[in-house]
Automatic annotation (TrEMBL):
Gene3D superfamilies documented for this protein: Histidine kinase-like ATPase, C-terminal domain (3.30.565.10)
Protein name from the UniProt record: Histidine kinase
Pfam families referenced in this protein's UniProt entry, alphabetically: His_kinase
SUPFAM superfamilies associated with the record: ATPase domain of HSP90 chaperone/DNA topoisomerase II/histidine kinase (SSF55874)
Organism, scientific name: Belliella aquatica
UniProt GO molecular function: kinase activity
Highest rank taxon of the organism: Bacteria
Signal peptide extent: none
Sorted UniProt keywords: Kinase, Membrane, Transferase, Transmembrane, Transmembrane helix
Length: 357
């Protein structure tokens, strides 16, 4: 980062030097030489003085007047200061002309054979010089304004990114604990029913914990790892399902791998098992996961059983869904589409999620 800043600073200095050199060469050297008249040394000294004043007003305006006056919203004062500085610069040039008797020197250069007769000063060149000074003020103001806008934009983007990272860290911290809380409750229930199934569940949970510990620390993981994680979760849930639950799962074995934010799919899958299972009624859960043309398509359907909504697990699942929606908005913004429908004749909870990978 520091190396990049040093490079930009050096490049900016070089651009300024080359820009001023080209401007000074064209306006204050080549333009007078194009007249084909040999001019006195006093003229070239005036050109140097004029050029020095121009550079001075540019950087005084750039580093001091603009930040301390214009950017403080004191526009009239800014215009007045620059007008007075411009007049002062022209006054310095007029005083110099009178001191070296520039009018007579230029007359001798252009009309050496004609006797010199003093005449009133022609202010045409003074007005031209004043306009050049105002041009320098305008350019310095434009450059300073653009740099301020770029700096504020970079700061805004950096702050937004920091906010996103902070929110994502907070959201993942909320999702992961309640997921493990639910899963450990399931395994605890299995120990009273089938010890072998409980052992199998623990092995799957250990693999899932490894994923959560290592992969969720990253901003992105492989889609294949995320899908394997979902498969383990479903198999873990399947171990405790009764014969009253009809589970339809469609997950591809082969697909084109891609990058995805970790723990995005799980809350929707978990929600199916938290709200879509009844101990007394026949229930059905449908989970379809497809990867097609760099798009992840998740479709879930499950019944809605009110008895599950007031349980700790049901409330936790709601928190997980809310946080996942927020993560989708932060990470995928316009690259995802989420449609949730819980108002339908079938009294089912439908989720249709599309993520552009």
């Amino acid at each position: 980062m520091n190396t990049n800043n040093n490079y930009k600073r050096k490049l900016s200095i070089i651009i300024h030097i080359l820009g001023w050199a080209l401007f000074g060469l064209v306006i204050f050297v080549l333009s007078p030489l194009s007249a084909g008249v040999e001019r006195p040394i006093e003229f070239w000294l005036k050109q140097s003085l004029n050029f020095s004043l121009l550079i001075s007003i540019f950087y005084i305006n750039f580093f001091y007047i603009i930040p301390k006056v214009l950017f403080k919203n004191k526009i009239l004062i800014f215009l007045l200061i620059n007008f007075l500085i411009g007049i002062a610069c022209i006054a310095i040039l007029i005083i110099y002309d009178d001191w070296v008797n520039m009018q007579e020197l230029m007359h001798r250069a252009y009309r050496p054979d004609v006797p010199y007769t003093p005449r009133p000063r022609n202010y045409y060149w003074d007005i031209s010089s004043l306009l050049i000074f105002f041009m320098a003020v305008g350019i310095s103001t434009s450059i300073a304004s653009v740099q301020k806008w770029q700096s504020e934009e970079e700061l805004r983007v950096e702050q937004k990114q920091q906010q996103i990272n902070s929110e994502l860290t907070y959201l993942k911290a909320q999702i992961n604990p309640h997921f493990f809380f639910n899963t450990l409750n399931n395994i605890y229930s299995l120990t009273n029913i089938d010890v072998e199934k409980a052992k199998t569940a623990l092995l799957k949970l250990s693999r899932m914990m490894r994923y959560v510990l290592y992969e969720t620390e990253k901003t992105h993981t492989l889609l294949s790892k995320e899908i394997d994680f979902v498969k383990d979760f479903i198999e873990l849930m399947r171990l405790r399902l009764s014969s009253k639950v009809n589970l339809e799962i469609e997950i591809p074995e082969k697909f084109e791998d891609a990058s995805i934010a970790p723990m995005l799919i799980l809350p929707f899958i978990e929600n199916c098992f938290k709200h879509g299972i009844s101990s007394q009624q026949v229930s059905k859960i449908t989970i379809s996961l497809k990867v097609d043309k760099k798009q992840l398509i998740l479709i879930t359907k499950n019944g809605i059983f009110k008895s599950n909504e007031n349980t700790p697990e049901g409330n936790a699942s709601g928190i997980g869904l809310q946080n996942t929606k927020r993560r989708l908005d932060l990470l995928y913004d316009n690259n995802h589409e989420l449609v949730i429908n819980d108002k339908n004749p079938e009294n089912e909870y439908h989720v249709h999620l599309i993520i552009n990978l």
